[in-house]
Amino acid sequence: MSALMAIIDAFASDPFKGNPAAVCLLEEERPDDWMQAVAQEMNLSETAFLVKREDGYSLRWFTPSTEVDLCGHATLASAHFVWEHGLLDRQVEGRFHTRSGLLTARYSDEGITLHFPIERGEPAVAPEELIQALGLIPRYVSLSRMGYMVEVDSETTVRTLVPDLALIAQLPVQAVIVTSRGASQLGSPYDFVSRVFLPSIGIDEDPVTGSAHCLLASYWEKRLRKNEFLAYQASPRGGELRVRVDGENVTLLGQAVTIMSGRLRI
């Protein structure tokens, strides 16, 4: 037996950019340990597993070490997968049933628009371990379900930051998100930039993190007094996102490129 599978670069319009995800279409649910083993074999930040159901697809996401509750780039890759393989008409909304509830996607000539629930953080005091790991004094820190979000002084600081990943992995959170306003005075087109570190779940630095932008958008909506943003995640691969806050939801617009497709032996 085998399953259709592809590796897709999400939040990218060209190959080898954005965030790669593996997407696997299963005829029926498989054991958790089997899916975890496949994700470890793929060794990408996320491997997504789809199972067709009457009103869409069930969707689960695994890093090389654990299952996660929400993943933006692997959802984008999954939507791209079902449309590219002719499993769903491009005029029809993609519906994905996940541990975070129903997520939907729409196809257009500009890309794929994802509809996610907004994430909000609460002001927090930066623990000494976080300050030491980043090597700086934050302008602002919040704590959410995802982890710590840290605002720093400039886009340059975000881009050049070399954190102590071993110290970050010891923090009692899943992620550390570092962000700043875009350097408009230096010609940056971005409203805000960010980087995301998740060493505790096997991802030192995530290339592009859609789910983190559900938190970042809610923060920058208040700071910048606007609800639409051009954002950039300044990882070595990098990725651009168009983000909009709409009440209790966030929409993320991005593109995706299939790098490889084939059959997975099961």
Short description:
The protein is α+β, with helices and mostly antiparallel strands and 266 residues long.
Please tag this protein with its features.
single chain, 266 residues, alpha+beta, Diaminopimelate Epimerase, Chain A, domain 1, 2 domains, 18-stranded mixed beta sheet, 6 helices, 22% helix, Phenazine_PhzF-like, isomerase activity, PhzF family phenazine biosynthesis protein, isomerase
Structure description:
The protein has 266 residues and is of the alpha+beta class. It has 2 domains: 2-113 and 253-265, Diaminopimelate Epimerase, Chain A, domain 1, CATH 3.10.310.10; 122-247, Diaminopimelate Epimerase, Chain A, domain 1 (Roll), CATH 3.10.310.10. Helices cover 22% and strands 42% of the residues. It contains 6 helices and 18 strands. It has helices spanning 32-42, 72-84, 128-134, 155-160, 165-170, 210-224, and strands at 2-10, 19-26, 46-53, 56-62, 67-68, 94-98, 101-108, 111-117, 122-123, 140-143, 147-151, 175-181, 192-198, 203-206, 228-233, 239-246, 249-254, 256-265. It has an 18-stranded mixed beta sheet that branches. A hairpin with a 2-residue loop joins strand 3 and strand 4. The longest helix has 15 residues, at 210-224. The model has no long low-confidence stretch (mean pLDDT 96).
The value of Rg in angstroms is 18 Å
N-to-C CA distance: 6 Å
The domain count comes to 2
Shape: globular
Strand-residue proportion: 35-45%
Name of the CATH architecture of the largest domain: Roll
Active site: 46
Organism: Paenibacillus phyllosphaerae
Family: Belongs to the PhzF family.
GO molecular function, one term: isomerase activity
